[in-house]
Amino acid sequence: MNTPNMETPRSPRRTATLWTTAALMTGVLGWLLAPSGWFAPEPVNAALVSQSGSYTIMTTDSTNEDLVLVLDGRSEQLLVFRTERLNELQLMQKLSLPQMFGDARAKSGRK
């Protein structure tokens, strides 16, 4: 009994294309499933904003310290704090928003 040869001839170009596609798909799948920061670490962003009720809090970094800005919507005040020893806050400024905007309008010549 003779069995016919069931193999189909493959060109080297098709085989190379298939292997290249498989390698690319494996790389993309590995990149998607890898833990965050394994291939390319995410940049650290010091500026965060959070809102609760009439308060909005924002953190940002200054030259050598972190700042915490608190916007009180009820009293229309902006409070600026700086960090002390990474676990304490010190009030640097308390600004009245209506006063600040009024001063800015006066300096620009608008009424």
SSE layout and pairing:
Blueprint: H1 12-33, E1 48-52, E2 55-61, E3 66-72, E4 77-84, E5 88-96, H2 97-108
Antiparallel strand pairs: 1-2, 2-3, 3-4, 4-5
Main attributes?
alpha+beta, elongated, 5 strands, 2 helices, five-stranded antiparallel β-sheet, single chain, 111 residues
Structure description:
- With 111 residues, the chain is an alpha+beta fold.
- Helix content is 31%, strand content 32%.
- It has a domain at 48-108.
- The mean pLDDT is 76.
Please summarize what this structure is.
By secondary structure, this protein is of the alpha+beta class. Helix content is 31%, strand content 32%.
Helix content: 25-40%
Question: What is the radius of gyration computed over CA atoms, rounded to a whole number of angstroms?
Answer: 31 Å
Question: End-to-end distance, in Å?
Answer: 104 Å
The percent range for strand residues is 25-35%
Class per helix and strand makeup: alpha+beta
Overall, the morphology is: elongated
Q: Outline the biggest β-sheet.
A: 5 strands, antiparallel
* Continuous helix count: 2
Low-confidence stretches: none
Beta strand count: 5
* Element string (H = helix, E = strand): HEEEEEH
Q: Give the averaged pLDDT, no decimals.
A: 76
Lateral strand order in the biggest sheet: 1-2-3-4-5
